[in-house]
C-alpha cells in the first residue's frame, strides 16, 4: 500500500498550494494570509467545522467520519523564518526578509492534502481534528493552543506530526520511541563592573575578565556536574563587551542555550548556572544578573503510538524506507507541548539531497507532499477503522 492513489491524483494541486504558500511567508503568530488561504481550502473541501483564531492565526478543522469514535489530532505548522531567500525559484518569497526555510509551507500542504482526501472519502470512525498552528519557530504557538484548552475543547485523544528532513532519503521516514527532540532553555547574563583606563586596571572592576571566567566555568556544568551517560549541551553563544583598545568597559553580556531530555537535568543546570554566575561574580568583584528562560520541553514520543505510526509509515513507504529507532536530536520542536498532553508521535519525512533547514537556499521538495499526506490519511483510517478494530 504505497501512496494513496487518490492523493497522488491531486499532487499537482498540492504543488500549487505549496508554491503559493512559499510566496507569502509570515512570522510567529502573524500568519494572516497563510491562515486565510488554509481556511479557504478547508471550506472548499467541506470540512464539518472550522474553528479559527486559536493562538491568533491558528485553527482546528473537524472532519466527521462515519459512526462513533474518538478524535485523532494531526498537526502542521504554518510559520516561516526571518531569512532573506536565496533559492532563485520563480515562486520565491514576496515578503522580503522572510522565507519558508524550514518547510512549514510543505507541512501545511501535506495536512491540506490529507484534509481533502479525508473529507471526500470518510473511511474512518470518529472524528479527525486538523491542527494548523502558527509560531513554531518562535512564540510557542503549540503551547498557546494547548493553554487555550484545544485538547479538551475538541476532545483530542492522540496527536501526530511530521517534519521534513534534508538529506534523509526522499520519501522515507525516521522516528524513535521516547525522546526524539531536546528541550531548549536560554540564559542571559548581564555583568555590571566598573570601567576605566585600560592602563590602570587596578582602578576598575573588569567585566571582561568576569565574562571570560563565566564562559569557562559554565562549561564545568556539563563536564563536572553532569552524569556522562545522559545527553546535555550547554553552549555560550554570545559575549558582547567593550568598544576601544584602551578602555575597560563598565558592562559585559553573555548568553547561550541549554539542550537536554530530562527534567531533572534541566533543573540541575538551572540551579548550577545560578551558583556559578553568583560565585564567579563574587570572585571578580562584579555584579551579575542571570535570566534563565525555560523554553520548549523535550519532544517525547509515546512508545505504542510510535510503533503504530512506524507501521503506517512502512505501509506508505515500504519496510526498507523506515527507520524506527533513529538517534535522538538536540534540536527542539514545540509539538512537545501537545505530546505532553496527549500520547502521539513525531516523525521525520526525508526530502532527499537538499540545503539544510534554516538555510537561505533550502526549499521543500514537492515530490514528498503526497507521501506525507498519505501517511496522515492512513494514520486516521487505521487508528479509527470503520466497524472498529
Ligand atoms: Zn525550523
Ligand atoms: Zn520546522
Low-pLDDT residue spans? none
User: What ions, cofactors and ligands are bound?
Assistant: zinc ion
Output the number of helix runs.
11
The CATH superfamily title of the largest domain: Zn peptidases
Shape: elongated
Write the layout of secondary structure elements.
Elements: H1 5-9, H2 11-23, H3 32-45, E1 49-54, E2 58-64, E3 71-77, H4 104-121, E4 127-133, H5 141-147, H6 150-153, E5 156-165, E6 173-174, E7 178-181, E8 183-192, E9 196-197, H7 207-224, E10 232-241, E11 247-248, E12 251-260, H8 263-284, E13 287-294, E14 299-301, H9 303-317, E15 322-323, H10 336-341, E16 344-350, H11 369-383
Parallel strand pairs: 3-4, 3-5, 5-16, 6-15
Antiparallel strand pairs: 1-2, 2-4, 6-16, 7-14, 8-12, 8-13, 9-11, 10-12
Helix pairs in contact: 2-4, 3-4, 4-11, 7-8, 9-11
The structure holds zinc ion (ZN) (2 copies).
Question: Can you give me a brief rundown of this structure?
Answer:
This protein has 389 residues and is an alpha/beta fold.
Describe this entry's structure for a reader.
- By secondary structure, the chain is of the alpha/beta class.
- It is built from 11 helices and 16 strands.
- The strands form 4 sheets. The chain has an 8-stranded mixed sheet with strand order 1-2-4-3-5-16-6-15, with helices on both faces. Strands 10-12-8-13 form a 4-stranded antiparallel sheet, with helices on one face.
- It has 2 domains: 5-179 and 299-383, Zn peptidases (Aminopeptidase, 3-Layer(aba) Sandwich); 183-294, Alpha-Beta Plaits (2-Layer Sandwich).
- It has helices at residues 5-9, 11-23, 32-45, 104-121, 141-147, 150-153, 207-224, 263-284, 303-317, 336-341, 369-383; strands at 49-54, 58-64, 71-77, 127-133, 156-165, 173-174, 178-181, 183-192, 196-197, 232-241, 247-248, 251-260, 287-294, 299-301, 322-323, 344-350.
- Helix 3 runs parallel beside helix 4 (104-121) and helix 4 packs across helix 11.
- Strand 3, helix 4 (104-121) and strand 4 (127-133) form a beta-alpha-beta unit.
- It binds zinc ion (2 copies).
- One zinc ion binds next to loops.
- The site of one zinc ion has 4 residues, from loops.
Amino acid at each position: 500500500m504505497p501512496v494513496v492513489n487518490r492523493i497522488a491524483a491531486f499532487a499537482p494541486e498540492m504543488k500549487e498550494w505549496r508554491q503559493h504558500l512559499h510566496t507569502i511567508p509570515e512570522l510567529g503568530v502573524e500568519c494572516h494570509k497563510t491562515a486565510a488561504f488554509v481556511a479557504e481550502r478547508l471550506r472548499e473541501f467541506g470540512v464539518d467545522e472550522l474553528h479559527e483564531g486559536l493562538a491568533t492565526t491558528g485553527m482546528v478543522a473537524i472532519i466527521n467520519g462515519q459512526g462513533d469514535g474518538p478524535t485523532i489530532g494531526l498537526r502542521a505548522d504554518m510559520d516561516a523564518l526571518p531569512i532573506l531567500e536565496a533559492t532563485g525559484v520563480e515562486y520565491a518569497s514576496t515578503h522580503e526578509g522572510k522565507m519558508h526555510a524550514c518547510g512549514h509551507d510543505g507541512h501545511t500542504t501535506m495536512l491540506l492534502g490529507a484534509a481533502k482526501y479525508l473529507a471526500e472519502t470518510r473511511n474512518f470512525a470518529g472524528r479527525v481534528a486538523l491542527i494548523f498552528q502558527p509560531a513554531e519557530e518562535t512564540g510557542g504557538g503549540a503551547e498557546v493552543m494547548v493553554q487555550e484548552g484545544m485538547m479538551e475543547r475538541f476532545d483530542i485523544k492522540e496527536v501526530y506530526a511530521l517534519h521534513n528532513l534534508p538529506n534523509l532519503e526522499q520519501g522515507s521516514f525516521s522516528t524513535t520511541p521516547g525522546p526524539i527532540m531536546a528541550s531548549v532553555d536560554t540564559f542571559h547574563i548581564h555583568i555590571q563592573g566598573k570601567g576605566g583606563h585600560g592602563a590602570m586596571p587596578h582602578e576598575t572592576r573588569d567585566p571582561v575578565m568576569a565574562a571570560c571566567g563565566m564562559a569557562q566555568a559554565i562549561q564545568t556544568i556539563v563536564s563536572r556536574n553532569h552524569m556522562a551517560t545522559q545527553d546535555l549541551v550547554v553552549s555560550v553563544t554570545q559575549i558582547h563587551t567593550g568598544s576601544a583598545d584602551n578602555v575597560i568597559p563598565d558592562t559585559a553580556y553573555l548568553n547561550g542555550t541549554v539542550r537536554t531530555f530530562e527534567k531533572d537535568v534541566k533543573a540541575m543546570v538551572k540551579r548550577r548556572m545560578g551558583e556559578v554566575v553568583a560565585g564567579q561574580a563574587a570572585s571578580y568583584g562584579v555584579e551579575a544578573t542571570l535570566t534563565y528562560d525555560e523554553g520548549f520541553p523535550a519532544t517525547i514520543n509515546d512508545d505504542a503510538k510510535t510503533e503504530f505510526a512506524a507501521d503506517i509509515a512502512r505501509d506508505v513507504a515500504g519496510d526498507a524506507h523506515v527507520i524506527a529507532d533513529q538517534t535522538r536530536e538536540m534540536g527542539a520542536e514545540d509539538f512537545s507541548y501537545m505530546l505532553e498532553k496527549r500520547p502521539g508521535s513525531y516523525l521525520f519525512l526525508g526530502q532527499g539531497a537538499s540545503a539544510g533547514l534554516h538555510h537561505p537556499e533550502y526549499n521543500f521538495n514537492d515530490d514528498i507532499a503526497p507521501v506525507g499526506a498519505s501517511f496522515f490519511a492512513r494514520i486516521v483510517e487505521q487508528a479509527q477503522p470503520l466497524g472498529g478494530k
